[in-house]
C-alpha cells in the first residue's frame, strides 16, 4: 500500500452476507459461515501485516441466538475449530480478546476462550477482538453496573464518573476507538456493534458479501477512509 496512506489504528468489521452468499449457490447457510471463517482468518493476517493496533470482528451478537439451532451450532463449531487451530499461530503474535458476555458459554468452547486469552495476554502484536455474544447496549449496561458497584462500595464518587471511566469499563479497555466500521453486503446498519466506541467512527459500507471479501476490498476501504475528512466536531 502507498506510503502516503494513513493506516487506521482500529477497524471494526461486521462480517455480513454469509447467508446470502450460500443461498446464491443453493448451499446451506452454514456453508456461507464456513467460507466466512476462512475470510476472517485471511483478513486477520492482513490486518496484522498492515500494522493495525486492533481489529474487531463481529462474530455473534446477543440477538443471533434467535437463529435456527442448526445454524447456531454450526457457527459455534466453526469457532471451536478456529480456536483449536489458533493455538498453532504462535508466530502471529496477536493478543486475542473475546468481547461479549461469556456467561452464555460453557464446556470446551469456554475453556478454549479463556485459555487463548490467558496464553496471548502478554503478546505485544495486534489485538484481535472477536465479538461473541456481544451487544453494544449490553456492554454499556454492564459498564454502568460495574461503576454503580464502585459508587456503592465508596471506592468512587458520582462526580468522578467521566467518559474515560466508561471507556475503561468496556470490553475494549485500553484500545483505541475504531477509526472506521466496515460493513460489507450492502446493509447500512450498526446492529448494536461497538456503540460506545463508534462515537467518531467513519462508516464504510461495501456491496461485496463477506465470503467474497478480499484483501483488495480492505485496501479499498482504507483508501475510502483516507478520502474522508475527520474533524472530531471541530472545523
Ligand atoms: C452474518 O451473516 C454472519 C454471522 C452472524 C456469523 C459470522 C460467523 C462467522 C464468519 C464464522 C465464525 C467466526 C469465526 C470468528 C471463526 P448473515 O448470516 O446474517 O448473512 P445474511 O445477512 O446474508 O443472511
Task: Describe what is shown at a glance.
With 235 residues, this protein is of the alpha/beta class. The chain has helices at residues 18-24, 29-50, 69-86, 107-120, 136-152, 163-168, 215-227, and strands at residues 10-14, 54-61, 95-99, 127-134, 180-183, 202-205.
Oligomer: single chain
From the N-terminal CA to the C-terminal CA, the straight-line distance is: 29 Å
Query: Which ligands accompany this protein?
Result: farnesyl diphosphate
Order of helical and strand elements: EHHEHEHEHHEEH
**Which spans of ≥5 residues are poorly predicted at pLDDT below 50?**
none
Q: What's the alpha carbon Rg, rounded to whole Å?
A: 18 Å
Q: Give the integer mean of the pLDDT values.
A: 94
Biggest sheet record: 6 strands, parallel
Number of helices: 7
Classification by helices and strands = alpha/beta
Shape category: globular
Helix share, percent? 40-55%
Biggest sheet strand order reads: 3-4-2-1-5-6
Number of strands: 6
Proportion of strand residues: 5-15%
